[in-house]
Amino acid sequence: MQSRNYKKSEKYFDISKEYIPGGVNSPVRAARAVHRDPVFIKSGLGSKIFDVDGNEYIDYVCSWGPAILGHAHPYVLEKVKKALKKGLSFGAPTKKEYILAEMINEAMPVMEQVRLVNSGTEATMSAIRLARGYTNRDLILKFTGCYHGHSDGLLVKAGSGVLTEAISSSGGVPDDYAKNTVVAEFNDKESVKALFDKYNDKIAAVIVEPVAANMGVIPPKDGFLEFLREITKKNNALLIFDEVITGFRLAKGGACEYFGIKPDLITIGKIVGGGMPLAAYGGKKEIMAHISPLGDVYQAGTLSGNPIATTAGIATLEVLFQNPEIYANIDENAKLLAEGIEKIMNKDEKKIHINRVGSLLSVFFTSKKVECYEDVLSCDLDKYASYYSFLRENGIYVAPSQFEAAFISNSHSKDDIIKTLDVIAEFGGKE
To answer: Catalytic pick from 270, 327, 351, 384?
Structure first.
């Protein structure tokens, strides 16, 4: 293992801990799950990021998904620079808001109308409020290990940072919030049926990540999403696809296009903002008409649809829409990486399991197939921590948690993949 200098990162982290809880503004960044301190990033370009100590990394976190084009894409930067000269925010409508909404509708026709917000958490929180207002029902059905942001009613058996920190719920969430969320097992039809049998006329909506990606990547079993569409229709409940991660990543039309399913509401984030704070929720006009100022479901935001974020989002989607071959490219490189890791790590005995859907993948340090939350819990977290550290010391940046996805961008080259596999081969030889 090479020895890297992290003196500036260590200094900045010590200062941050004085003023920021845990020294970070999102828990997974602290790298506690892999027994390390975080590196502080100075810049990014293409498939690479550079820390404050001058260390270079091939980046497979990609800002947790938004950087599908790579870091500092020149076309996106050019558009944002021009927009900056005109002002940062007005708190009033701009043309760019409906242009972005039109582009979202073109890609995802189910989103007949769109409301722009600032984060994935806002999008899912608002979509759930809308579902309750539209159906006049209170209960939401979610799945163990799926993460839909940090709003109170959804921090129940969640994934992402909550799973990383081994928190089943969260302090500060009253029981009165949590009691309106019922939890089924991802990929388990019977657990869903049982809840509908018990609460069928009280469930407002089922919210699901069509590809679970916050407990590591777990694809839906054949027929599972179709089943959710059928049972929600049968029981007059809404189906919400949380496509904050999968939207514009699996395909131009996200998971809806990829799997051929039409939910009632969709939430999107990350890529749609092109690296800026922007997200959206949308669906059928009949449902969206219940949002204020048309209806009685209230939701607002000072910076919602601000001109800088919408500029970055429009520019990113323009590149994706005009270059559809990007999806084949990132899929091919993700496949090359996943198959290479599997061949290296499982050469003599099965040490890992890899799940991949398009350009999303996870390396699970378990020999068993990973299809649900319980399977994820079989992972060897210490082995993953060793894997993370070895890769980081050798210029490969992966998520500081076993329970997060790896992302491929269009800037990742075959040489990046080969270099990554060479480092993993060196790690595998030590195991």
So the answer is: 270
